[in-house]
Amino acid sequence: MEKTVRGSAFVFAENIDTDQIYPGRFVELTDVEDVAKHAMEGADPSFVKEFKKGDIIVASTNFGCGSSREHAAITLKAVGVGAILAESFARIFYRNAINLGIPAIVCPGISKLVSKGDVLRVDIETGKVTNETTGAVAQAQPMSDYVMNILASGGIKPMIRQQLGLAR
User: Fold this and answer.
1) Domain named Aconitase A/isopropylmalate dehydratase small subunit swivel: which ranges (predicted)?
2) Rg (CA), the chain
3) Given Cys at both, which of 1, 117, 118, 123 links 128, Cβ 3.0 to 4.6 Å?
4) What SS3 state is found at 58?
């Protein structure tokens, strides 16, 4: 895992729910490439066309609210999100993202410091977020050592396999 992520920002408001992240009408899709085609479709239909692997989602409060379906986090992993910065996350979405190896980072006030297209640099380990476009700097809440281990392993399942000495 890269401890520093750099990418363009895609900015969303508060209360982005899991159906906006991955609309429920696509839950029957099982191929990861098909799933990725619908990332953020309910909130921004042009997202997948503009998004580049490693780009960063920025949101206000309560990102990932709604259903507990893991599909929302899976689609963001599939599209290659570098990190998700939000002022707060819905609890289940947050754990789904972390467990899949997606840096979901709580960063108070971030939605006021970033506009769509700004280039951000995020130090996942220290929580320092730099808006390279404007020069603004924010401090995210630090991740625990346990969460950093999950992210470094690529998710909770790979971490457990490593701990048990199981190759995959």
Assistant:
1) 48-102
2) 15
3) 123
4) strand
At 79, is the secondary structure helix, strand, or coil?
Answer: helix
Q: What is the pLDDT of residue 163?
A: 92
Q: 157: part of which helix (H) or strand (E)?
A: helix 156-164
Does the 4-164 domain belong in CATH 3.30.160.150? no
pTM given for the model: 0.95
The two tokens of residue 119 are: 């280039």
Tell me, rounded to whole angstroms, the distance of Cα 5 from its chain centroid: 11
Per-domain residue ranges for the chain? 4-164
User: In the beta sheet, which residues pair with residue 60?
Assistant: none
Low-confidence ranges of the chain (pLDDT < 70): 167-168
- Tell me the per-residue pLDDT of 7-18, one tens digit each, with 9 for 90 and over: 999 999 999 999
Give the other-Cβ count within 10 Å of 4's Cβ: 14
